[in-house]
Amino acid sequence: MGLVYADIQLTNADDMALARRKLLDPSKVRSMTVKANVDSGAYMLCLNEHVATQMELPVLGKQSAQMADGSVCELEVVGPVEVRFENRYTHCNALVLPGDNQVLLGAVPMEDMDVLIHPREQRLIVNPDHPIMASKPVR
User: CA dist 4 to 33, 39, 41, 73, 125, Å?
Assistant: First the structure.
């Protein structure tokens, strides 16, 4: 299977909370649509420095991360971020990759949105078993 990409909308969730409380004009909520590499082998949402800076996401801490080449590095964690794809959304934190690396949509936000990679079509899809809304086991 080749690389899979999807357009996802990212929104600064802190801005959204302020707008809900009428402390921020809704037009000031920072949001952008990006083309993300969809990788079920990756764990988290990963943004690049440009996206994290442009959205002014607060740094929450740092985490150690193993990269695709096996190297381990310390990366900033930012958030919260709202991620939207079609009729699905989730809120999560994100690792910040250095430079202008590709945005990466990993397994945790994919599972929470109940979306799947369609291998033959090489694209991200809403789970056809639950087309109206996300479904999750709660056991």
Answer: 16, 7, 12, 25, 11
The domain limits of the chain are 4-126
With tokens 């999560």, the residue in question is 92
4-126 topology per CATH: Cathepsin D, subunit A; domain 1 (2.40.70)
pTM of structure: 0.93
Reported as type and span, the H/E element at residue 25 is none
Closest CA relative to residue 64, chosen from 46, 80, 76? 76
**CB–CB of 122/116 below 8 Å?**
no
pLDDT digits (tens, 9 = 90+) for 71-125: 999 999 999 999 999 999 999 999 999 999 999 999 999 999 999 999 999 999 9
